[in-house]
Amino acid sequence: MRADRVNQDYFNLFCNLSARLEQYGVARNDIKKAYVRAGNDPALFFNEAHCSGVASETILFGVVADYLNLPFRDRVTSCRVIDDKSRVPAELSFIQHALVLDAQNKVLLYLSPSMEHMTTLKYYLSTNPSLNFKIAICPPSVIQLLDRRSKKHELARKAVTMTPAKFSSRRVLDTRQAFIIAFSVSLLAFLFFNFLWPTLFAFHIFLSCFFFTCVGIRLLAAMSAQRLPKLQQTLPLPSDLPNYTVLVPLYKESDVIPQLLDALSNLHWPRGRLDIKIICEADDRETLRILGYFKLPPFMEVVRVPNVGPRTKPKALNYALQFARGEFVAVFDAEDRPHPLQLLDAWAAFQKGGEQLACVQAPLIIGNFRNNFLTRLFSFEYTGLFRGLLPWMARHDLVMPLGGTSNHMRRSALEKVGGWDAYNVTEDADLGVRLARFGYSIKTITHGTIEDAPENFPDWYKQRTRWMKGWMQTSLVHLRKPTETSRQLGFKRFIISQVYMLGLIISALFHPLMLMTMIFLVVSAFFSPFEVRHVMLLTIDMMNIVMAYVSYYLLSARAAEKSEMDGYPYLLGIVPYWMMISLATWRALLQLMREPFLWEKTPHFRSSNASQILVSEALYQNAVYLEDAKNAVPAPMILVSSSPIASRSRPS
To answer: In the predicted model, what is the mean pLDDT of residues 413-419?
Structure first.
């Protein structure tokens, strides 16, 4: 009975405010549509009306001020925020507010009430006619701006320290790890100098154990690898969808902003429950200047990150996370074009997986894969990883390293594990391990994201250096206390995760050694007879190298579409590609010792090759492929509404 009375009060208030909105020039039909989109819930009406463009914040909260007979402020004037909660009456403390001292040294309480608080506020004002401060109504954005200005350094420091010290890469090595590594290197050097052939043979056997285990993991994943399934082209929007936050960190990304804003505008989610944070460094003037050319829709907001602590992507994500209002959080990169239904796909997976499902990973699809050798091999690598290996790991509940983009997280789980490590330059892999250590699971979904591979060696080289350095950081962090990590993950998952992580690093470092040893032994056979030890080493190396190449090729080839293979000799390209990875890994090792937190930026450029985008869109929508890839026709993209951005050209 009481709930019915509350609902009736809300509806009466909604009718009162609707009449006032009409007086402000808002069409009655638009008000009705916003009310329906809010699920016929008056408490959600304001947010939906604002985010769908029915009325601006200024109009909506001007109406609230008019209803409450209070002054209205739509911008921040010269003032100082008073951080003293005791001065705010308890009856008003639950309303979004800011207590400030204006230029005339008068105390002013800014309030931004939601629909559910307005009746309470009106009653309080009627029973407390004389207050020792003035009250003004303002939009939520004004209070957010006041709060961020007054606490920006405190919020930035929290972003840096959000991850607990025991899981942070801020300290590269602990004392025990440093001793073990120094002792192992010294012992190995001594043995090589004094007992070359026995040590070389034993070292090859040791490496072979890692390589064969990695080969086994790839072969098992290849057995179940398959092409992306046919995607649904429409999905209904349930009425009970939660708020969803999308975080998009940018740094020197002015070239891709128009493309990015169009892609974000096409995400299929109720505008009143979509919260997109475009995150920029406060001193990135060029990116902020270009963003200023666009009138962003109400569900998008630019967040400026103060220059406190390391300048890394995870720190920027942690900073923006403190302002997120979503129950779920997704991360996209600047050049990403996510499938419009990806958020719905992720939400459906969360509903099915229960509270223990903390994260889902969408597949990443390379849009410029035809450009050159690098983009071909990069795309081939991503195909094996996101359509073969990660789905296999998810099915067997193994520790799954996340991709740096298109991962969707349950916000409560993300905050419980400490967000992203601000000092880890491959924060995605670290977060995947940390979620597993806290007992959470990670799954994969099918609606993917198109992104572009680096098109030249310097950009690729720096990006791969950063990735491998981050893998090293992650391995060191989670091996500080291996017994504890093993207990949290379970012995089987711990062993497989360490084989995968350490195998990735060790194989990249020493693959050239085994390759050169094999070549040396083959060449030396022409000048001197083979000894038994030479035959054994050559056999071990040939088995390792051949099996490694074949397993890598099979994993990616089984998951790739016909148009991606296109007769290209990927198997031959693996040899030079792996040598390049090895070169980047050795650079990463040196950089870990000298500049462990250096984040080398990967530049992104707006996609311009229409034919290649068309092929990638076809893969993205899983359309029927024709023999000639240039004639591949994608399934139509869903446009939820006409993009408010697509029609605006970039100013010259």
So the answer is: 96
